[in-house]
C-alpha cells in the first residue's frame, strides 16, 4: 500500500522522519512542514510553523513534538483533536473554567465538547436544526449558551452533562453573536434584521 504526501511548498521535499501511532501517521519534511495522515479515513492535515527542516519527531497519537534545524532551533508541541470531528466550518470556540474542556460550534449544526487532556471529542450536542454560529459561557452558573441559524438561543447545563435546559425563541433570523453578563445572568444575542435581544439566562 502506498500513501502519497499531499501538496507541499516544494515538489522535491524530502521525508526526514515518520512516526506511526495507528491510525495516525505523522511525517516530517525538510521544508518545515509536518503532514498528519489518518490512514483509516484517508484524511490529511498539514502543520506549518517551522521555518527550517524538521528532523526530529515524536508522537503519542494525540500530540506531536517536532524539532527543526534553524539557526535558533525550535521544539514545537502540537495537540491533535481526534474523534467526532466537524463536517463543516467551525464558527466559534469556548474554553471552560476547568481549563481542560473546549467547546466548538460548527456550521454542521453540531456542538462538540473536547477533552484537551485526552485530545478527543467526548460529547456531541445536536439539538440545533441549523448552523451553530456562536457560543457564550456563564462560568458562575455553569451554563453554555449557543446561537444558531435556526433562529434560537439554547442554554445548556454543563454540570448536568450539557443537558439542554431551555430554548429561547424570538429572533426573526439567524443568531450571529452572543454576549454573557454573568453577574446579572443576562445574555445578549444579535442577529439578522438588526435584531438585538436581552434574555434572563435562568428563565428566558
Automatic annotation (TrEMBL):
PROSITE patterns: WD_REPEATS_1, WD_REPEATS_2, WD_REPEATS_REGION
Organism placement in taxonomy: Eukaryota, Fungi, Dikarya, Ascomycota, Pezizomycotina
Keyword entries, A-Z: Ligase, Repeat, WD repeat
Protein name: Putative E3 ubiquitin ligase complex SCF subunit sconB
Coiled-coil intervals: none
One annotated GO molecular function: ligase activity
Keyword Cell membrane: no
SMART domains in UniProt: WD40
UniProt organism field: Beauveria bassiana (White muscardine disease fungus)
UniProt repeat feature WD, residue ranges: 83-124, 125-161, 168-204
InterPro entries registered for this protein in UniProt: WD40/YVTN_repeat-like_dom_sf, WD40_PAC1, WD40_repeat_CS, WD40_repeat_dom_sf, WD40_rpt
Amino acid at each position: 500500500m502506498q500513501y502519497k504526501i499531499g501538496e507541499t511548498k516544494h515538489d522535491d521535499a524530502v521525508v526526514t522522519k515518520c512516526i506511526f501511532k495507528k491510525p495516525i501517521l505523522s511525517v516530517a519534511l525538510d521544508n518545515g512542514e509536518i503532514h498528519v495522515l489518518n490512514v483509516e479515513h484517508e484524511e490529511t492535515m498539514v502543520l506549518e510553523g517551522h521555518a527550517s527542516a524538521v528532523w526530529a519527531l515524536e508522537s503519542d497519537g494525540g500530540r506531536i513534538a517536532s524539532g527543526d534545524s534553524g539557526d535558533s532551533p525550535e521544539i514545537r508541541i502540537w495537540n491533535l483533536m481526534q474523534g467526532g470531528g466537524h463536517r463543516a466550518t467551525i464558527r466559534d470556540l469556548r474554553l471552560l473554567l476547568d481549563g481542560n474542556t473546549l467547546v466548538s460550534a460548527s456550521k454542521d449544526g453540531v456542538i462538540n465538547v473536547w477533552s484537551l487532556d485526552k485530545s478527543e471529542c467526548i460529547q456531541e450536542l445536536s439539538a440545533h436544526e441549523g448552523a451553530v454560529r456562536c457560543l457564550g459561557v456563564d462560568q458562575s452558573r455553569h451554563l453554555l449558551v449557543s446561537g444558531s441559524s435556526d433562529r434560537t438561543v439554547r442554554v445548556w447545563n454543563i454540570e448536568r452533562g450539557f443537558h439542554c435546559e431551555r430554548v429561547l425563541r424570538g429572533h426573526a433570523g439567524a443568531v450571529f453573536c452572543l454576549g454573557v453578563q454573568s453577574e446579572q445572568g443576562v445574555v445578549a444575542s444579535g442577529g439578522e434584521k438588526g435584531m438585538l435581544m436581552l434574555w434572563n439566562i435562568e428563565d428566558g
